[in-house]
Amino acid sequence: MSKSVYPMLGELNPLSFLQAFIVQSIKVAGQFGCSQEHDRVRYIERMGLAAASCLETAARAERSLPQDMPLNQEQYASLIVDIKNQIGGEFSSTSSGAHCVRVINHRCPFGEAVREAPELCRMTSSVFGAIAARSFGYAKVELRKRIAANDGVCEVLVYTDPAVAREQSGDEYQIKNGQVYSSLASTDDQIQQALVSTWCTNNLSNRASQKSARARIIAQSTAMRAAFRTVEIVAPTTASAVISGETGTGKEIIARAIHALSDRSEKPFITINCGAIPESLIETELFGHERGAFTNAYQVRHGFFERANGGTLFLDEINSLPIAAQVKLLRVVQEGEFERVGGEQPLKVDVRIIAATNENLDFLVRNGKFRRDLYYRLNVVHIHLPPLRMRPDDMSALVDHILRRLSEKHHHPIRILSSRAWKQIFAYDWPGNVREMENLLERAFLLNTGEIIDTVIEQDAPQTMSDCCSLRELRRQKGDIAESQLLHESLRRYNGRVSDVALEFRVTPRAIYQKVKLLGINLQEYRLDDSRETLT
User: Fold this and answer.
1) CA distance 423 to 437
2) Residue 388 burial (CB < 10 Å; 0-12/13-18/19+)?
3) What's the DSSP call for residue 370?
4) What is the rounded distance in angstroms from the CA atom of residue 472 to the CA atom of residue 453?
5) 0.70 exceeded by the pTM?
């Protein structure tokens, strides 16, 4: 998320923060078409969940309430009323029963805009629900009456006991591992919430938190949702992980998500591009050096491992690491200690390592280009990110997000794509993945003179894929192709082992066998030829 959406509480007073948040919410709601109502609701819900902790922190500070002490029902009712009234509402709490808070409102903070975008009420629900869940462990929010629905008044009931709420309608909110989960939010929403929460609570104390919070996670496709489910499972552990995928698929975002959801989230997140460091400097960069270790070594230098102590070290393009450096890296991974260049005293370090590769490490191991023992040490958990061409379900959300971000960056009203441009998006293979999509969309955004972008790819896609069929049919074709390619890639990766492929796709082996039969795939080819590379 950009800084303008979630400003730090230390930079703006709470009232300015809330006003900016409301303005952004209205802006965002208007940017979705009517056919995307579900996405619009989910986006507003996501914003409310992410901001709730910041709003609560400010409100508690104003009232001199301890930040870590649960609120009682009376304090909670007073606090949420104050939050809403600071931005122009006329909220008040009425007599509430046990485990239920009733709030009414006669003037919506969104003004008349709420009648055009009634889904904005979702933010009230998520803010109220998230704050209640943190104090009571559970909340169900029922929007019984709404000005947006022409009821003339808003009536909101917040139930804080599951037994009392059982027979009531509404959205549920619960606490899990210190994070608020809603009945609407999916796995990628929960990760996004954790990233933003990291930014809000750490006051931008380090570059890692800032980047983590700004990272936008798009995951509509089955493959990416599976990747994020793995992230959610592995993040709270101390296990090392290897993230594989083509350049530009978002490997660093996944690494930052793992860090943000871990117990190390308040510690450093250090990134190293192994392919960008000259071989002669790798050891010094990783482990540092002592004063006088070599010519011009006038003082002690702390390497990446020391700087990442207690946190996470992200080794990007680890496939580029020379064999000699791999030997020294293995010692740190195994023993948790190293020596600076020119030093004699072993130094202990507690670092979680996440590695990324755009090549098949298993293939490199078999060809003697990567140490087998280091590979097994790092590859405790493997997360594979498919290329964008295999993620047609993510393309619409990615394009929408990039266009909104470009609108903010260049201070220009939002621009949309024509039907022709959308066909180009789905027909193109995107060899540069998300990075290429960002660059091409920015170029089209800047060069376009109207509000509708008609051309994204200068060279039109083949006639058979763009002009002969509808956008819906094109998306279906692209989805079928992507599904087939993903299955082929997975079979190559696991040398035709159906049980492993089924585990990756989270389906039964029987389902994989059925799909293999439907596509006419010969499993024996993958079992015999295990020397193919998985990634391009």
Assistant:
1) 14
2) buried
3) S
4) 19
5) no
- Specify the pLDDT at position 521: 81
Q: Do 476 and 447 form a contact (C-beta atoms < 8 A)?
A: no
At position 136, the amino acid (one-letter code) is F
Provide the pLDDT for residue 370.
93
CB atoms within 10 A of CB 235: 21
The three-point CA angle 309-338-231 to 5° equals 45
**What residues does 157 pair with on adjacent strands?**
102, 142
Say how far apart CA 468 and CA 346 lie, in whole Å: 67
> What CA–CA distance (Å, rounded) separates 353 from 305?
10
Sorting pLDDT into bands at 50, 70 and 90, what band is 376?
very high
Angle (CA) 60-86-100 rounded to 5° is 65
Q: What is the model's pLDDT at position 375? A: 93
Burial 156-174 (b: 16+ CB within 10 A, else e): bbbbbeeeebeeeebbbbb
Which amino acid does the sequence have at 125? S
Q: What are phi and psi of 282, to 5 degrees?
A: -60, -45
Starting at the earlier edge strand, list the strands of the sheet with 352-357. 269-273, 312-316, 352-357, 241-244, 381-384
Q: Output the CA torsion sign for 467, 470, 471, 476.
A: negative
Using the predicted structure, report yes or no on whether residue 105 has a pLDDT greater than 50.
yes
From CA 224, how far away is CA 216, in angstroms rounded?
13
